[in-house]
Amino acid sequence: MNAIQSITVVEDVTLISLHDSPADIDMIAKIFAMISEAGIDVDMISQTPPHRNIPDLSFTIAGEDMGGILEISSRLRELNPDLKLSISNGHCKISVFGEGMRGCPGIAGKVFQAVAEAKADVSMITTSEVDISVLVAKADLENTLEALHKIFD
Prior knowledge:
Strand content: 25-35%
Shape: elongated
CATH superfamily of the largest domain: ACT domain
Strand order of the largest sheet: 2-3-1-4-6-5
CATH architecture of the largest domain: 2-Layer Sandwich
Structural class: alpha+beta
Distance between the termini: 12 Å
Largest sheet: 6 strands, antiparallel
Number of domains: 2
Radius of gyration: 17 Å
Order of helices and strands: EHEEHEHEEH
């Protein structure tokens, strides 16, 4: 049985990173509540381990929702004046999915090998037991997809 069932792409993805935000789950809950109230759907979420109790928190949204994030950015800074917001658009999310990935060593290594061979500019990686998603620059989409299909097809 092939461990990988599908490789999918979402284009026009914007990466939002919040720097210098305290490692406080209440603060994180408030941030995502504000984003939800603005009608913005969040996709990939990644938090770095805290350094001096200050992690970085990144997430992705559809490119069309970037204006909504800009509208609430001042409210986010009211929650924490030290918060630094960076926004980067022009990304694509590539997801490798398969129920057979669960308990199957080596899949992540193969995904990362393919992405490396494509020389893709990776901005974010998220995983679960059955999914590995990489956020790459739009310019790297075709080469990365080709490399992934070469390994998994």
